[in-house]
Amino acid sequence: MTNSTQSRFGFSNFAETWNGRLAMLGFVIGLGTELLTGQGILSQIGL
Q: 34 near 40, Cβ under 8 Å?
């Protein structure tokens, strides 16, 4: 398949790459807000 006909949904290399990137970004943002506020992530959202 050429790149233009590959699916962009489901278990494809494109989707898995972006899922990993966004997961790493979310983890770093969560860790940063925890360090800045002094509260855990769950306590910040009220749990």
A: yes
Which spans in 1-47 are helix H? 13-37, 41-44
Instruction: Measure the CA–CA gap between 4 and 27, rounded to whole angstroms.
Output: 31
Judge contact between 30 and 40, C-beta under 8 A: no
Contact of 40 with 46, CB cutoff 8 Å: no
Q: What is the pTM of this model?
A: 0.62
Q: Tell me the per-residue pLDDT of 1-47, one tens digit each, with 9 for 90 and over.
A: 555 556 666 678 888 899 999 999 999 998 999 999 988 888 888 88
Q: Where are the chain's structural domains?
A: 13-44
CA–CA separation, 17 and 40 (whole Å): 28
